[in-house]
Design goal:
Blueprint lengths: L1 H17 L2 H4 L13 H11 L3 E5 L5 E6 H14 L17 E2 L10 H11 L3 E6 L2 E7 H15 L2
Antiparallel strand pairs: 1-2, 2-3, 4-5
Amino acid sequence: MKKEKQTSDNKIETILKDTKVGDYMTRNILVGKDSFTLKHVARLFNELKIHHLPIVNKLREIVGIISANDLLRVCSRVMDKGYDREESELDQTIVDYMTSTPVVCRPDDSIAKAIEIFAEGKFHALPVVENNELVGIFTANDLIELLNENLARDSK
């Protein structure tokens, strides 16, 4: 049994080192502009069932990212202040709430490297950049898909 586990662990380690982020990233992604309001982003998250929105400039260079967790923090503050304010914080643009210059990875980075970045940064999405242009996003869900595919293949 111990040898089987070791073989399985080695197989997973090999997969994580040899598989590239570009093989599992989401390529057709919605991007935002820094002029979007928090309210607009919240609607997008709800309607499209997404949790992260990369923010790009006109050259499609990544300038930020906003997450569902960022929105939850704002909503919590709004609820603490009350709803009777004339202009809600949710009507503000995302510039002050997004993560500017987020940590990114490249399509040819290994999945193992992406996992390290996730663990160090305690976040769940990495914009994927090639030649300074956003080409995709790699999320914890993409990682789960990779592991699930390989586990399913091994169980057959």
